[in-house]
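Late entry, written up from scratch paper. The run itself happened at the end of the previous shift, but nothing got recorded in the book at the time, so transcribing now.
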Amino acid sequence: QAQLVESGGGLVQPGGSLRLSCEISGLTLDYYAIGWFRQAPGKEREGVSCSDSRDGSTYYAPSVEGRFTISRDRAKNTVYLQMIRLQPEDTAVYYCAAQLPWTTVQTMCNSPPQFSFWGQGTQVTVSS
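Output as recorded:
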């Protein structure tokens, strides 16, 4: 049974950094697209960054391009989201999700309902 567990969230001041981790079990990371999504209060869940296992391609939402980096550690079956220069609008619950890839990495990232396996989420709060 697949299990995704996020960690690394917390309270950080504007301009600060955090690294989120998503430990995955029950899935072979090499075969799955992995996405980081976030949901702020009153807003829809949105794709932040995704990684396609087929060719290693990545996608970043325009709002995080240049500030967030997604990476995989195959040995640990873990996916990371490094976040720098955090802003108050980055405040949200962050989720990782996995799905067998079916289209381009950008389209996958913009289609959260198509991901089958989800973690429980980790809160990120950016505030002074």
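The first helix runs from residue 105 to 109.
(Scratch paper discarded after transcription.)
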